[in-house]
TrEMBL record:
This is Acetyltransferase. The keyword Transferase applies. PANTHER family: GNAT-FAMILY ACETYLTRANSFERASE, SPERMIDINE N(1)-ACETYLTRANSFERASE. It comes from the Bacteria. Keywords: Transferase. GO terms for molecular function: acyltransferase activity, transferring groups other than amino-acyl groups.
């Protein structure tokens, strides 16, 4: 298990799947996750995803567990690794009851620590939609910076929005963590 101040990242268990399915089928959660049509998924599809978790060598999925009560609250992971160029793409989601409480930022910091210290990667990338201001604020707290913008890339809620590409270098993450640890 990987620990932060508020959450643990751990392996998914079969017991998490029904709750994950409920989170994914909440339109308010789903609209931030996938550029496709936010159509509900079947519970069987979520179990199938779980059964195939260990078959990919370039993805690492973690359940996010709240430390205070060991409750499953969401997931995060490394969605693809480019070993040659030493970078990875990441993603995260939380169930709506856990938004704006610091869990997502804490989970992302733990995931980044894993990526930079255990996987020894150089850079982490993610995509976020321009209407997801809450997530962008969290990513900036973790040290991410905007590196690019795909204008009017996604259609949601009756209009087009930009997809923002954010990145974080290992040296910037390490420097940021050292400065916070030593109060610089």
């Amino acid at each position: 298990m990987l620990e932060g101040s508020l959450v643990r990242l751990r392996a998914y268990s079969r017991e998490d799947i029904e709750q994950a399915w409920k989170y994914f089928n909440d339109f308010e959660v789903k609209k931030y996750l996938n550029p496709g049509i936010p159509f509900p998924i079947k519970l069987e599809e979520e179990y199938s995803w779980y059964e195939n978790l260990s078959s990919s060598k370039d993805t690492y999925s973690f359940a996010i567990e709240r430390k205070e009560d060991k409750r499953y609250i969401g997931g995060c992971g490394v969605n693809s690794v480019d070993w040659k160029n030493s970078n990875a793409k990441v993603g995260i989601f939380l169930g709506r009851p856990y938004w704006s409480k610091g869990y997502g930022t804490d989970a992302m910091k733990v995931l980044l620590r894993f990526i930079f210290t255990e996987m020894n990667l150089h850079k982490v990338l993610l995509n976020v939609y321009s209407f997801n201001e809450r997530a962008m604020k969290s990513y900036k707290k973790c040290g991410f910076v905007e590196e690019g913008r795909l204008r009017e890339q996604i259609f949601r809620m009756g209009r087009y929005y930009d997809t923002i590409i954010m990145g974080l270098l290992k040296k910037d993450f390490t420097e940021n963590m050292i400065n916070k640890e030593f109060g610089a």
